Amino acid sequence: MKVNVRQRDGVTILDLKGKITIGVGDVALRNAVQEAINGGATRVIINLKDVTTIDSSGVGELVSAYTTATNRGAKLHLENLPAKVTDILQITQLITVFDVYDTEDAAIRSFSE
Amino acid sequence: MSDDKSFHLAIGSRFENIELVQLVLKDSLDQLGLDDDNRHWIDVAVREAVANAIKHGNLQDPAKQVHVDLTLEGGEGHEDWLVIRVQDEGRGFDPSELEDPLAPENLLKPNGRGIFYMKSFMDDIQYRARPGGGTVVTLRKRLNPPQPDDPARPARTRERQA
Q1: Band (B157; pLDDT cuts 50, 70, 90)
Q2: What does chain A look like in DSSP terms, one character per residue?
Q3: What is the SS3 assignment for B159?
Q4: C-alpha B129: how far from its chain's center?
């Protein structure tokens, strides 16, 4: 998995690409989120548009990212979920835990609401 | 059983070897003519089974192997079931001790969803201890199900939406 980090309107956006799976993608996601939060980011978006496969470890890292952000006083939103990522989060009833947005504009706007 | 679709693989207990299993599995699933959704969810279920065997079964000891077998089972020339067995060399575990990942106190835990996903994406999963040690998980998926709309989405998702 590849992670690209960018800033837009005061929001740190992590663009994930590829597989968020055990041993590789899950660690990359954990490191990227921790770097952002440690660097002082308080508004973080994980863009899942180009994620092809996610397994239970990847789901676990999304949950950890959410709890890490919340515990540190930051907000974390998810955007552009592919249908299969939505499905896998729905099955374990996590879709309602996360703040999920269809578009980046909506995800950014929501921080100000 | 059709020999060109079945396979046996033995891999060392490294997570990167999951990708090898996926390559071989993909070839078999393509030949079976399964749709994209089914191929994807079977792929995820097998990932979970192999990851569990590497992590919890063999404790990531690269000298210990994980065996993956794919067979087709049925009667009178019919290939009714896709059967995937994943076998480790670990000490085994008691499936009845697994926690419910949907319980409110477990919802935000980082672990504990793998077997739940396997059950969601396959039609049947069974665990048994091997006589010489280790665990075998058997994942079954019905091929050519009676209802044409049956395989379109994971079983759990369908139930919840019904």
Answers
A1: very low
A2: -EEEEEEETTEEEEEEEEEE-TTTHHHHHHHHHHHHHHTT-SEEEEEEEEEEEE-HHHHHHHHHHHHHHHHTT-EEEEE---HHHHHHHHHTT-TTTSEEESSHHHHHHGGG-
A3: helix
A4: 16
Q: Tens digits of per-residue pLDDT, B96-139? A: 788 999 999 999 999 999 999 999 999 999 999 888 889 999 99
ipTM for this model: 0.92
Is A31 in contact with A65 (CB distance < 8 Å)?
no
Nearest CA in chain A to B101: A92
- The pTM of this model reads 0.89
Nearest chain A CA: its distance from B108 CA (Å): 6
Q: Which of A53, A65, A55, A54 is nearest to A29 (CA)?
A: A65
Residues recorded for chain A: 113
- Residue B55, chain A, CB below 8 Å: the answer is yes
From chain B, the residues in CB contact with A91 under 8 A are 116-117, 120, 154, 156-157, 160
